[in-house]
Design goal:
heterodimer; A: Alpha-Beta Plaits; 2 domains; 5 helices; B: alpha/beta; Rossmann fold; six-stranded parallel sheet; 20 helices; 35% helix; globular; binds thiamine diphosphate
Amino acid sequence: MKNKHILSVSVRDEPGVLVRIAGLFARRGFNIESLAVAPSGQEGISRTTFVVTGDDNDINQVEKQLFKLIDIIEVTNHTDAPFVDRELMLVKVRVSSPDDRVEIRQIAQDFRASIVDVHREALIFEVTGDEGKMTAFIDQMRSFGIIELIRSGRVALTRSAADDRVEQPNPLNFREVAA
Amino acid sequence: MTGAEIIMRALEREGVQTIFGHPGGAIMPIYDAIYDSPIEHVLVRHEQAGAHMADAFYRTSGKVGVCFATSGPGATNLVTGLATAQMDSSAVVAITGNIPQELIGTDGFQEADVYGITMPVTKHNYLVKDVNDLPRVIREAFYIASTGRPGPVLIDIPKDVQIADFTGDFDDVEIDLPGYDAKVPVDMTQVEAAIEAIKAAKKPIMMVGGGAQTSSQEIMDFANKLGIPVITTLMGIGAYPAGDDLALGMPGMHGTVTANRAITHCDLLIGAGMRFDDRVTGKISRFAKNATVVHIDIDPAELSKLVHAHVPVAGDLKDVIPALSSKLDKLVITEWWDQLKEWRDKYPERYKTDKPLVSQEVIEMFHEATKGDCVVTTEVGQHQMYAARLFPTSKPRTFLTSGGLGTMGFGLPAAVGAAFARPGEQIVCIAGDGSVQMNIQELATIKKHELPIIIAITNNGVLGMVRQWQEMFFEERYSEIYLADSNPDFQKLAEAYGIDGYTVYDRETAKSLIPEVLAKGKPAVMNFVVYQSEHVFPMIPSGAGLDEMLIGDQEEDSAPIESQLVTS
Ligand SMILES: Cc1ncc(C[n+]2csc(CCOP(=O)(O)OP(=O)(O)O)c2C)c(N)n1
C-alpha cells in the first residue's frame, strides 16, 4: 500500500550534498513530493525534510540508500512514531469587493492566518500548520480567486520528551535496516 | 612542500606501489612530483583503461587500485571505468587534476564538472579546495574505498591546490566521517533465525557472489562442514572452487541447468555476498518460489531490494559465516543431493564440435593447459559466458570480469592491472574480436612492461552475443554485427606492437600451440578464427523465469541449434 512518509535527514554541510540526494532520488526512481532544507542548530549539519510516497518496501529502500550516502548522518522516518509537522504557505487572494474583503478576513482569522501584505485588489496571507490546514484554507479561498500561492514544504519532528536528538525513537541504525 | 608533493607522500603513506595514469595540463604539477616519487607509474594509452587496471589491481590483490587523469577529457574518459568498479564493488581511488579554482565554472579550457559527473558512478567523491585538506581527504578516500562494501572514490584537485604551499600538519589525518559506518555490527538475532532456517531445510542451497571473494576460506569451511550445495554467480567465480563436489556452477541467464533447477526447487536459499542481479534471477516472481531466503550482505540496502529476504543478515561474511558454522552440523539432505547429482550428470557442460573450430573448445583448452591455475580476465559477450562456464578458476580473486556493467573493453586492461598486482603469474585474457578492439591500444602497455599476458581472441567475425539475440529474438535480422570484413589482422597488429602474434584455424594446431605459448611466459596475442554461429546455451530469455530455460546443445541428442523450451 502506498503511503506518504515524512523523512528527516541530517546531512553534513558539504558542497553538493543536495545534488547527491536529488541525484539519488532521480536515479532510483523515487519521487520527492516536498523538500525543505535548513540549518539544524548543530554547526555544520543541516536538516532536510522529505515527503515521499511509496509502499513500505520503497520507503525502506529510500531510507537505506540515503543512509549509504557518506554525507548523510542520520535518517528518521517520522511516520513510524508520533510526530509534529508544519508547513508555511503564502497565499495571494483576490479581493473583488468590500464584502469579499470582510469575509476573507473572517475566514483568515478562523485559520489564524496573518495578513502580511495588503493591496486594494489582493491580500497576502501567511498560514502555518499541517497539511490538512493548508488544504482547507486553500479550499476556502478558492471561490474568491487565488492569484498565487507558495508552500515551503513540510518540516517535522518526532514527539518525544528527550531533548537530545540522538535519543529519538527512530534514527536509522543497522539493526533496523536489517529487519 | 606543494600540494602535489603532499599528494604523492600521502599515497606513499597509504602503501600505494603502482599508479595507472595519463598526464595532461591540469595534472602536471602532480606528474612533476611523480618524477621524484618511489611509486611506480604505469603510463596507459587511454584513461578508461587506467581505471580498469586500477580496478583489476584491487580485484586481484585486495589492495586499493589507483589511477590518475587530467581534467576535462581525461577525467571523462575515466567514467566508464569508475562505473564498472562501482557496479562490481571494486576499491579504486581516482585522482583527477582540474583547472584552477578561479576558472572553475567559466567553461575554462579542458573544464568538465567532474565532481558532478562522477557522483553517480562513485561510492563518494571529493573536490579539494584547500591544500591543507589533502592528507585527510586522501586518507578518507582510501578508507571509504576499501571498507564496508568497497567502491571507487574520486578526488578532483584543482591545479592551484596542487601548486599551493602546504602549511598544515601532514600527520593530522583524523578521519571525519560521522555519516559513514565502515563495519556493520552483526545482528545475532538474525543469525539465530538463519540457523533455525538452515536446520529446518530439506533442500538448501547457498549462492555466493563477488562479496565472497574476501571470505573464500570461511565459505569453504562452512560448505564442507554442512555439505551444502554451492552455486557461484559470475562475480563469485573462484570464491568457491569450481568443479568441487559441492559446486553446482553458475546461476542465471546463462547458468547451468543444475544451478537454475536447484534454485527453482530449493526450500532454502542462502545468498552470501551477492545482490540478486536480474541476470541471476530472471523473472523475480518465478525465482526460488518455494524458498526461505536468507540474505547475508555487508550492504544493508541490498537486503530485500529485489528478492524479499525472510532472514536478512546485514554483516561481513567473515563474521557471519563462522557464526553460522559454529552452531550447525552436517545437513542430512541425501535425497536432495541425489536429485542434484542426477541433474548434474545429465547436463554436463556440453557443446558441439562437428563444425570448424569453436570458441568453447578453445576456451576449454586453456582450462586444460592451465588447470585453471592462473588469472583469467574476460571481455564481454559470448566468450565471457563460455569462460565463466569452461574456464572458471579455483582460487579467489582470479576471475576478473565486468559483471554488473558488462563493459566491453574491460578484459584487456584488466589483464594489465592483474599482471602488476601479481607479478610473474600467468594471465589469460579471453576476448572477442569486438570487445578486444575497445581498449586494444593497451597492447603498448603490455609490450612496454613485457607482461606475461596471453590475449586469446575467439574471433567469430561478429558481435556474437548480439548476433545470438538477433537470431533468436529478432527474426535473424542481423543488424550491424558483422566485423569480419573490416577486422584487422590481429596477428600483424600484435607484431606491430612488438608482441608475438598467432593465427589459429584448426583444433589440432590450437591444442598443441596453446601450451607452447603459455610456456613462453611472454606477452602474446592468439587469434583463433572460430565458427560464427555458436550459441551460448542454456539460456533464459530476458524476462523469463529460471524454470523456463532454453537448453539447446546441452540436451544430449538435440539438434545443434534448435533449442527446446524445457520447463523444469
Ligand atoms: C561498451 C559496450 N558496448 C556495447 C555492449 C553490448 N554488447 C554486449 S556483448 C556484445 C558483443 C561482443 O562481441 P565480441 O566481443 O566479439 O564477443 P562475442 O559475443 O562474439 O564472443 C555487445 C556489442 C557492451 N556490453 N559494452
